[in-house]
Each structure stands twice: as C-alpha cells, then as structure tokens.
Hints:
This is Transport and Golgi organization protein 2 homolog. By secondary structure, the protein is α+β, with helices and mostly antiparallel strands. Helix content is 29%, strand content 23%.
Amino acid sequence: MCIAVFVWQNHPVYPFLLLLNRDEFHSRPTEPLAWWEGGEILGGRDGLAGGTWLACTRDGKVAFITNVREVQKLAQAKSRGDLPVRFLEVPSPQPSRLAVKKVTLPSKKSPMEFADEVVEEVDQYNGFNLVLADLCSRTMVYVTNRPKEDRNFVTEVSPGIHVLSNAQLDSPWPKAQLLGDGFRETLMESSGDDLPIKLMVEKLMTNTVKVEDESLLPHIYPPELEYHLSSIFVEKAPPLGHYGTRSTSALSVKTNGEVSYYERYQENQVWKENTVTYQIGDVCNLYLGVHESEPLGCARDACAARATRAFGLASRDDALSASAWVAAAVLAAGACHVVAPACGVGGGCAPGNTYNYLLARGATGARISAAASVVAAGPETPRCGCICHCCFLL
C-alpha cells in the first residue's frame, strides 16, 4: 500500500527529496528501476498492469501514488498505477507494422492540468492518493478520490515536510507521524550539501516496530491485520500472506539540477540495489540554477537573458554587468533555487529592500548580512530594478 515522506521547496540544497516504501504481494511481477523505452522516463513498473508507484522524467516531472485503505472496492476499477504513467508520458499511437519497439515520450501537461483531467474520472478508481510535481515550475499537486463525500479532490502542496500513507496527505496515523518526525530530525542533524541518502533509507524506511496500542490504529481492517500493517516496513506475516514491503526508493533533486534515484528491492528473496543519476535538462536552468562553468552563472545568465528580452536592454553583456552583483547576493543568501520577484516598495534594489525581502523569505543572521553587504557594494544603476523584478533568485 506504500508510505512516503518528502520535503518540498523547504531545504537549501534539495528542493525535493522523497523516501518511499512500496508494499505489494511478493508474487506480483515487477520491473525494477530503469529508463523506459525512449530514455525520457525513469522508474520501476508493475509487470502485471504496466503502471508505476514512482517515476520521474528528464525534464523535471515526478509522480507517485499510494492506495487508500478501504474494505469496499470496485470490481471493475481502472488500474491506479496507470495515473502516474499518464501524467508523465504522451499516449502512444498505434504502432505501425514497421515499428521495432514502442518509444515513450514525456508529456507536456502541467500538474494542475492533469489533475483536472483525473477529477473527471475519479469514480472509476478505487481509493488513491496521487502526487504530481513539476520541479521547473515549482508546482506540486495532491489528488485523491477519498472520502467520496468530499468533492474537493485537488490541493496544491505547500512547501514543507509531508507524509503520505494510506489515508489523506499528512493524516496522523502512528507510522506516518513516526516517519515524519524521524525524517525531520535527520534533516536537522545533517549538514553540508550532501545528505546521507542511503543511511536515511536504512535508518527510517526499514523500521519494523509495530503499534501495540490498538486504540491508536485505524479501524478499517480487523485488528490483527492493522497491527501487522502498522510498521513503516511491513514484514511478511501469516495474516498478510505473501504481502509486505517489496522495495524502498529514494529520489533526490539538488538545486544544481542533479537527480539521484536509488532503489533497494527484493528479487527472488534476495535484496538488491541500484542507483541512477542524471541532470535535469536546460529547460530547468532558470529554476534550479544549472550551470557548469562558474559559480555565479546560474543566476547571472538567467537574469541577463530575461532582462534583455523583457526590458529591451542594449545587449546581453550590458545586462550581465548589472546582474552580477544581484546574483552574488542571491548565492550569499544560500537559496539559489526559486525564481521570484524580490524588489521592495518602489521597485528598486536598495540594500534595505533586499534585506527586508531576505528577512521575509526566512533568511537569518549571517546570510542576510552577507547578502546585504554584497548588494551595498554593488553599483546602483537604473537597470537594477529591471533585473530585480524579473529574476532575483531566492
């Protein structure tokens, strides 16, 4: 049934970091983590229905799903695992007789566009929780079809730490609270640019401790079943048959556009692991600060290109000179991963306005001082307001 914990747009290095346990019958055919046909979509696949529980694309889209725990189910329901696939890929035309193999292409639908499409057919599925994200537009949407009486099925996910189990997002089930608390503590304890992802998986996602107090458990299945399902990692046990945690995934995205997808999975009763890394394409440069050659390149080039187009500056080089110190302030603030307008009242880039904006965004102490100092040392030019308006990166 799965459980997932993730941080969204609330970490200085990782705009998105997800840990997910997939629970399923061990006899169900499964394809482990791999690039799909066409090389644009990465994830594991259900070998029976062809769906997925978690997948991502080269252009910065992510989708994952969990089931909603319920007793009554539709006999002829559509496959829930097909929903992430439909968000991530373009429907394939009927293959021609000359086609060698199917090629999977990425979809161009936004999370909200696809969510609106799903809402029209929610009654055709058993209970599900679906999360859709576009990292380049910093958009994440949560879609669910339970409870049926609540027709508000779509919610935009706010920045922060969230847990998704087999009830609604951030429901206070004991194992969801335990996982969320452990994840938050681990993030606070870790320092530096690289989090120990595999250690986090080992520490948080292999926890087999069960809830002894029956009153704290959901009252959906019989108590014995709820007890065995109450741990973060679900062990095979006689009441569950050959059901339990089949795999653990860790998907991380850094502010420089580097994606790492780690999977630990069981195959023929043997635990194996695999990691795939890649770089989000140029489409994401403005948002994730992807640049290979120089520290200030991410902010400076993005600002220059946008300012030249939007405000008719004489040349790209002209815009670069005005934006260099703005970019330096951004990087000094330690948060080069979100594009937002940053100027204060009057539209200028005075140090006071920059300071107030950083403060409003949650930056504190030395980072604000460093950023304000860089801004104060820079040239005050009329172009400053233009640069600030369109692409101050915070």
